[in-house]
Amino acid sequence: MTQILSANKHGVTMRTTQGMLGAVDIPWSEDLTLDEASFRALLGRLSSLGAHHLYIMGTAGEGYAMTDGRFQRVVDVFVDAMRGTGVGMQVGVISLATEEVIDRIRYAHDLGVRSFQISLPSWGAVTDSEMLTYFKTVCGAYPDSEFLHYNLARSKRILGGDDYRMILDEVPNLVAAKQSTADMALVRSWMQKAPEMQHFMLQGPYAYATQFGECSLLCSMHGVYPELTREMFAAGSIGDVTRTMEIAEEFNRHRDGIFGHVDRVMIDGAYDKLLVWLTDQSFPRRLLPPYEGFSDAEAAVSLEYFRRSAG
Fold it and tell me: Which CATH superfamily is domain 20-239 in?
């Protein structure tokens, strides 16, 4: 993501450029160390599919479970593999400790990373003043970098448009947010009250949000349906609401076909690693303990649907 200062077609001066943001899952060997060959192969493939930025260590990338050593190893390989691809790289940091967030950002920053994804501490819901202190402290420590806020319920506080308005007036390098809700009232508030941020949204909310201004696509299924993802982003970017909504419904059908036969709830990475595995059955689906993913039998049903749907 890159900061820009010119107004867009809606008359809004955006804090960063519009684009598609994709998550990168992290493969673990049987001894739970990084499977570097598999990780590099995945990065090579994803960087060729059209996403403008790739990020590591959100919830799907098991960022909540990182020791310092594991975090550093993943960042080392990520940065090395992404150099020269032309795709922006973003590092996610999840921790209860603000000092640890700052220290981990420093490690990636020293390697040249300038885009970071952060979430609010999750042990207890923060007050307004605590929220401001957190963003001013973390983002203010690296004024040459851009920050995306991962706005998720696990932090015990979902930020609305008024919250972002309060923060933006004091934190100039908070430029974007990753939004995973389908609450249309929230979508409107983000787009109307914090329009200068890039709000990266999943397919359904993205289709709705394009009616209110410029926003970006959190492309959760670009690894399995890259052409459809690119078409959706393009349609939304030019304001073709009808086509964007049609594609959103197509993604809903694919999601039901891939995941609908399993009625238990799993941690985020279980679903995302299954998506990677659908295109590469050598990719390990294992998660860091204690979490469990799809069984072999469940994954086989998903694979059968994917092969039919992909033609």
Answer: Aldolase class I (3.20.20.70)
